[in-house]
Design a protein that fits this description.
The protein is of the alpha+beta class. It is built from eight helices and 14 strands. Its EC number is 3.1.3.15. Pathway: Amino-acid biosynthesis; L-histidine biosynthesis; L-histidine from 5-phospho-alpha-D-ribose 1-diphosphate: step 8/9.
Length: about 270
């Protein structure tokens, strides 16, 4: 079991790294001369993505030199039972178009389990964080925080669903099931990326799901949803952020959503 004091120190460090990340990313947000490249997987990366990850890695090399690091933009470093998982800017496509829905995701994995995280969205003026058995919070800082909880909605007909895009669901073979789920829910909106999952944690949305994601997209979101009282699994029901896709709910709706998302020939 991870000591609570250890996690408190790690969460504080994650906030410090998020502060630095916010300063870097906001300084280049909407910059007319923002430098953008296309990665081998055809996704965009900006100079801010790289600069934020470099900043976080520099801090970790000083403060947690024995810890491993896994990030989106750079090679893995270190071998340890403690691993930091970083997405420097989740929502890069929004960032480069001037849409304020993007965030830095910082998670700490200990012994194969996500134990703490911070999600910071400076253009929205929002931040969320959690630690194992420590609850989930939102606020400007640790000293200015409100604990958050998932909703108590128990029927799909009363539920709000958030997603990123339709295309991935069609390609996954679950397209018809996802469309049927949208129709069965009270409301569906494409908030997308990290924000869908933070809205689940806050109780503003009841279901969030995506058919294709990387570990760095999900690690920081997983524990915040769980510590807020929800469930975070793959779309096949496997716990955690390690399976290439995600379903987060308030917990009460989880099993029925898994049933709706089972692949079918018609997907």
């Amino acid at each position: 079991m991870v000591a609570s004091k250890e996690l408190t120190d790690d969460v504080r460090l994650a906030h410090v790294m998020a502060d630095d990340a916010d300063s870097i990313s906001m300084s280049r947000f909407k910059a007319q001369d923002l430098r953008i490249k296309t990665k081998p997987d055809s996704t965009p990366v900006t100079e801010a993505d790289t600069a934020v990850e470099e900043s976080i890695r520099r801090t970790l090399s000083r403060t947690r030199p024995r810890d491993a690091v896994h990030g989106e933009e750079m090679q893995d470093t270190g071998e340890s039972n403690r691993r930091w998982i970083i997405d420097p800017i989740d929502g890069t496509a929004n960032y480069l178009r001037g849409v304020p829905v993007w965030a830095t995701l910082i998670a700490l994995e200990i012994d194969g389990q996500i134990a703490a995280s911070v999600v910071s969205a400076p253009a929205l003026g929002r931040r969320w964080w959690a630690s194992l058995e420590g609850g989930a919070y939102t606020g400007r800082s640790i000293l200015n925080a409100t604990q958050i909880h998932t909703s108590r909605v128990s029927q799909l007909s009363d539920a709000s669903l958030s997603y990123a895009s339709i295309n991935g669901w069609v390609e996954s073979g679950r397209g018809q099931g996802f469309v049927d789920l949208m129709r069965e829910c009270w409301r569906s909106r494409g908030y997308g990326d990290f924000w869908s999952y933070m809205l689940v944690a806050e109780g503003a949305v009841d279901i969030a799901c995506e058919p294709e994601l990387a570990l760095y997209d999900m690690a920081a979101l997983d524990i915040i949803v769980r510590e807020a009282g929800g469930r975070f699994t793959s779309i096949d029901g496997e716990p955690g952020p390690y399976h290439g896709n995600a379903l987060a709910t308030n917990g009460l709706l989880h099993d029925i959503v898994l049933e709706r998302l089972r692949p079918s020939e018609a997907g």
